[in-house]
Amino acid sequence: MVNESDMECVPAKLTKRIIDEMEELIKQGWYANKSELIRDAIRELIKKQKVAQLESAIKSDIQWGLYGK
User: Fold this and answer.
1) CA dihedral in degrees (31, 22, 24, 52; nearest 10)?
2) Most buried of the four, 7, 25, 42, 44, by CB within 10 Å?
């Protein structure tokens, strides 16, 4: 579990539409609050980016192995 002292506040400006959509997800019970939703969204984005980078590196390795380029 993360301590409050391990957290850092990061200000961000979001459009009204995004806020409305966030509030709808919270209302539906998917998240307890906006902070939880934002943390989860950022974790998912980071995970997807890492997978994309790994896939790119693997494709480059295969290309080099097949064609020496």
Assistant:
1) -80
2) 25
